[in-house]
Amino acid sequence: MDKHLEKTVEVLEKMKQYEYSCMEVFATGTKQNIDALTHAIEVLKADQKLHEHLAEKNTEIESLNKQYAELAEEISKADVG
């Protein structure tokens, strides 16, 4: 093999190594992004469940407040009467 051809082969091998390195970095970054997005989705689902739970509790509190107001009104009328 002549020197020029040897140098070309050497450069091509280095380019191939570089390409594999880039692919590895890309694959690692992609996996990290997928992991981060998966975690974010889990957090959002938990947050949604919490909001639903809080909405239910808020409805219960509103109902109890209404009952309390009705009882207070009845007591007020009984005191007057």
Descriptive notes:
- It is rod-shaped and about 115 Å long.
- The model has no long low-confidence stretch (mean pLDDT 94).
- The chain is mainly alpha-helical and 81 residues long.
- Helices cover 96% and strands 0% of the residues.
Mean pLDDT: 94
Assembly annotation = single chain
Basic shape: rod-shaped
Write down the secondary-structure element order.
H
Strand content: under 5%
Q: What is the element layout, followed by pairings?
A:
Layout: H1 3-80
Can you give keywords for this protein?
81 residues; mainly alpha; rod-shaped
Quick structural summary:
Helix content is 96%, strand content 0%. With 81 residues, it is mainly alpha-helical.
